[in-house]
Amino acid sequence: MTTSAPSIPAISKVSDVEGPWRRAWRQFLRQRSAIIGMIMIGLLAFTAIFAPLIAPYDPIGVLLGKEEGIKKRSGPCIHLLGCPTEQPQHLMGVDGNFRDLFSRIIYGARLSLLIGFVTVAISLSIGTFLGALAGYIGGWFDNLVMRILDVVLAFPFLLLAIAIVSVLGPGLMNAMLGIAIVSVPAYARVIRASVLSAREEDYVLAARTIGATPAKILFGHIMPNAISPLIVQATLGIGTAILEVAALSFLGLGAQPPTPEWGSMLSAERNQVFTAPHLVFFPGLAIMFTVLGFNLIGDGLRDALDPRLKRS
User: Fold this and answer.
1) Which of 10, 97, 130, 151 sits between 20 and 30 A of 46, alpha carbons compared?
2) What Cα–Cα distance (Å) separates residue 15 from each residue in 11, 12, 18, 23, 24?
């Protein structure tokens, strides 16, 4: 009598095991809103990179004397939509200083992306460092850092940024620095909460047992497992930084003329909202498009990286 050998379950290859980041990326790509956000930011990045090829005019060049019959604050002229061919084409019209608005919007995309990434990079670096140390060390150091950050949070966001820029002086770099300073508490609190949760895990205890240094434990073991919420916060923060710097430029504290920055363009033509609405509409639309794109990506990352929000 023969007996069949017991079947041995097949062992999957290590390469077939899906890692957490790969799984998060797959979850991210399943969300339509996140894909739309990626397309929007991709178009913005393409526009910023190839701005010299896309823009038909110099963004700060005055066209008065170069084009015959040009009028201040004239509306859009598109030949395909019936504008006379003998008239120079201006897709978004001409501003109050005889400059092509479309070219200024295109170059403004490059400046806005720079503003968003640089501002978030500054605040993210400072906030992550302070929050991670406060969460890991704890005790009096944690209380000291968090109470200082609570004082910063006690002031209205934009008013504190206005105060900082007023002290430093008007200018785009100072506006970015002011927004970065007031954004530090948000990143510090997020990473502190993640570190407080992660430092009690078993792998941290194992690292201490084998004699790992505190720096190695914090930056080599805890931070890689606590950084997911920070990625989401940073992505949402890029859109917020662009919006807040535009607000400072609108108040005259950010980019100064003739810099093609969307907030300063709105400020320069804010009194022409009824007589030349295109000069207010297009910069405002550009700001809305950019902020919406980053918010959609941030929401998608939040849903993909937070296990409590995973969908079936």
Assistant:
1) 97
2) 12, 8, 8, 13, 17
